[in-house]
Amino acid sequence: MSSTQSAIEARRIEPPARTAGSAWNKDDWWAVLLGLGLVLAAIALFQYDSSLKWLAVTPARWSTFGQLGADLANNAIRYLAQFAFWAVTFSIITAALGFETRRFLPAFLLLYVASLVIFAIGQWDQANKYNLEPPLVALALGLAVANTTGLPRLFEAGFRVELYIKTGIVLLGATLPLSLMVWAGPIAILQASIVSLATFFVIFYAARWFGLDKRLAATLGVGGAVCGVSAAIAISGAVGGRKGDAPIAITTVVIWAIVMIFALPLVARVLQLPTGVAGAWIGTSEFADAAGIAAAQAYGELAGHVDGIAGTSDQAVWAFSLLKIVGRDVWIGIWAFVLAIVATTRWEVREGGRGTDAGEIWRRFPKFIIGFLAASVLITLSTRGLSLADYNKVAVPTLVNPVKDMRSWAFIFCFLSIGLTTRFRDLAEAGIRPFLAFTAGVVVNVILGFVLSTIVFASYWTNLVR
Length: 466
Hints:
- This protein has 466 residues and is an all-alpha fold.
- Helix content is 73%, strand content 0%.
- The chain has one domain (24-462).
């Protein structure tokens, strides 16, 4: 083993000592409490014909700075209320986790203002043209600052990456009711499952062939099979990964996600794929939700404007949503559970660990996945009896979208924090091997997704209706 590899191995995160009441000394249960609290509040308001959307304020679409300024001014009280909500709740949580509030608040103020600017950029009417999706802009801006001028260390108190992403994942569950999987139909779930399984195993075994640690291989594999940021953090924790595993996976995923924003619509246009088929291919071959939506929307807008491209814009976005957001994202809980078991009962036993222990599996399992599932069940129960049309007409605008907007804020906080705390020199020690292993999965992912979308299930996606 090389000295570099030995140094990397030494950085593996060891599970902290467990003591009575220690569950609240980690951010998992706090994220569940905050996320489910927001979901329950949204459901309660929905039941009384009201909505959480007043608090879940976001910048409106704009084309001129005058429009943007007017919108921000008109909603200033709402933004102040939202900032107060996030600041108070996160301050309580971070104080419980041992961080000083006097250090957290100024840093979070900076984070919120920067996130508001990023959100506004994403609402520019030309944002899709330039692929300025807020999470990707947040990550790019954070990386640029961290690897050039940097920020004073005192601001790092506000960059609580895991708290933000875990809260966002719980809220993600509220946008994926179990009934949506039924409405998606067996074809969408089957195709998404085939791609998720194939992508994971190709990346995992390619990474092992390149000599990478099993934990990093698993983190990379699920990052490609599901959703990069969320999956990387969840799986790295589940398998007891090193500190650098999640950032390596996240960076690799984002690089390929950006490539696919341009490549997939371009190839689909050359081949003149129907919008539903192209949306399905993007859904099985893109690696990030925000990037995939941008790609699907961009291609869908070609329908009716470019000769030879059949279908509607809605078909592209709906096909993408069924495969990526519904079909693949729900696998995050499955992979976390399975790999937590594998890591504790097989990998650590072979490495001379303490052996199999059901309690250790529970301690290792990402608790925010429970919040994700609970949020899905709560929304399912609150919308039971609604048809898909009624769900889209009644529940989505007043119940689901406000929760989704709060989730978007949490994800932007997370992506920006990741960027601001990631230095390229810290990732360089892993070398090019993680990228090559992930790229092997990309090749299989793109080809398999194309075959399934354009040949095996082509008629289904061509005639997709919502």
